[in-house]
Design brief:
Blueprint: H1 3-14, E1 20-25, H2 30-43, E2 47-51, H3 63-66, E3 74-78, H4 81-91, E4 94-98, E5 105-106, E6 116-120, H5 129-134, E7 137-140, H6 152-169, H7 180-189
Parallel strand pairs: 1-2, 1-6, 2-3, 4-6, 4-7, 5-7
Helix pairs in contact: 2-6
């Protein structure tokens, strides 16, 4: 590994955010999943959760839309809603679902300097009632047009870039936040030798 490559990978991993994740529930199109993965990599999200209870488990993502982002991320696949939420609760203080409902928060009112999981649902039906019932609330992306929804990959991108903006202002990208064991495990997976860790 060249010194330049090593420096690049260290820079990336030191900006990974341990307290932010994206959950994709029953997203059917693998290209949508891949587009979200690519954006997660871009903003420094390491862990992504994919829940498949009503669609087949994805065997591979859309390669063209992910630009190979999946190889740099940790994708957790789940088939049980309650088990997934239990796992999320161990790590994230708040779980918000995208859902147009009375009392839904604006995206811009979420405090992303805390520990947050954002759930995005199926292209046609959105986030299920089961997941919404287990979450802390719903959020919406403010819109000025007639159509009141965005493609899931666009909605995820808009949302997590707002999270990145808040985290940058709070200085959260200035210090590494991944637990040391996870960080070292990823660096090993990325080709670092033990003496480099």
């Amino acid at each position: 590994m060249t010194p330049e490559r090593k420096e690049r990978l260290l820079s990336v991993i030191n900006k990974r955010q341990a307290n932010l994740t994206v959950v994709l529930e029953n997203v059917e199109d693998p290209h949508n999943v891949s587009a979200v993965l690519r954006t997660c990599d871009a903003v420094g999200i390491q862990d992504i959760h994919v829940l498949t209870t009503k669609v087949p488990r994805h065997k591979r993502w859309g390669v063209k839309s992910s630009s190979s982002a999946a190889q740099w991320l940790t994708v957790h696949q789940h088939t049980n809603t309650q088990e997934m939420v239990t796992i999320l609760r161990r790590k994230y203080d708040k779980i918000y679902t995208t859902h147009l409902a009375d009392g839904a928060l604006s995206l811009y009112d979420i405090d992303f300097t805390g520990s947050v999981a954002l759930v995005f649902g199926n292209e046609q039906f959105g986030v299920s009632e089961d997941v919404r019932a287990l979450a802390d609330g719903n959020f919406v992306i403010p819109m000025m047009g007639i159509i009141r929804s965005l493609n899931i990959s666009v909605a995820a991108a808009v949302s997590i870039y707002e999270a990145m903006r808040q985290k940058q202002l709070a200085g959260q990208y200035n210090t590494p936040s991944l637990p040391e064991a996870q960080r070292n495990g990823l660096l090993t997976d990325w080709g670092f030798k033990e003496e480099d860790l």
